[in-house]
């Protein structure tokens, strides 16, 4: 398994998470996610550098067939099947019903964990329309301004997130002037959970 291989190689040569992160120009948290399998679709530009840092070839690190390409600058084209785990509101929060057995094929360079189907028009300013598939990378926090899937009292919505810890305030901002921001303060924050960051979307073909 890739996650275990990264962790084993890192420990074998005595590197810390911080040292690997610095070498890749990323965060310690990202390397930790590589090692626990939360992020499995590592960007190709990171694969080469990660392999160098861990003193292995990209093929050995990723488990690719060495005969696939005789050139070390050519990478295998990969595709993943991501589960569609439900519907998410682009408007007022709605319950996210799971679509069992539904999957979508995506390019291996999309760093996503699952997909949600958008419902409503509150995110049209971000080009996310009713019925679009939104690719979500599972994580429990996002940067201000990121679009995220958010659970509110067991209901789900897709909005831009702005969190102000000093004020004990969370603002979920739509991308449609017809909708007002959703504002939560203090104890209300206990009922809210970030599912993950939106990293891509796929529009319907009409």
Describe the protein in words.
The protein is an alpha+beta fold and 206 residues long. The chain folds into two domains: 2-64, 434 Repressor (Amino-terminal Domain); 81-202, Umud Fragment, subunit A, CATH 2.10.109. The chain contains five helices and nine strands, in the order αααααβββββββββ. The chain has helices spanning 2-12, 17-24, 28-36, 44-53, 58-62; strands spanning 79-90, 103-107, 114-120, 133-138, 147-152, 155-164, 169-173, 182-185, 192-202. A nine-stranded mixed beta sheet has the order 2-1-3-4-9-5-6-7-8, with no helix packed on it. The longest helix has 11 residues, at 2-12. The chain is globular, with a radius of gyration of 19 Å.
């Amino acid at each position: 398994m890739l996650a275990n291989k990264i962790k084993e190689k890192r420990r074998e040569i005595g590197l810390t998470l911080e040292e690997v992160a610095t070498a890749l120009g990323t965060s310690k948290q990202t390397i930790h996610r590589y090692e626990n399998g939360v992020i499995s679709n590592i960007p190709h530009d990171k694969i080469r550098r990660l392999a160098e840092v861990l003193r292995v070839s990209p093929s050995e690190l990723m488990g690719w067939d060495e005969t696939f390409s005789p050139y070390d600058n050519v990478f295998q084209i990969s595709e993943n099947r991501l589960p569609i785990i439900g519907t998410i509101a682009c408007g007022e929060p709605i319950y996210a019903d799971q679509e069992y057995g539904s999957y979508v094929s995506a390019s291996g360079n999309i760093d996503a964990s699952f997909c949600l189907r958008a419902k409503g028009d509150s995110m049209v300013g971000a080009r996310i329309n009713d019925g679009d598939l939104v690719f979500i990378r599972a994580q429990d926090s996002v940067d201000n301004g990121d679009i995220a899937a958010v659970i509110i009292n067991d209901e789900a919505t897709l909005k831009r997130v702005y969190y102000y810890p000093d004020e004990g305030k969370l603002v979920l901002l739509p991308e449609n002037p017809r909708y007002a921001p959703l504002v939560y303060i203090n104890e209300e924050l206990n009922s809210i959970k970030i599912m993950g960051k939106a990293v891509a979307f796929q529009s319907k073909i009409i």
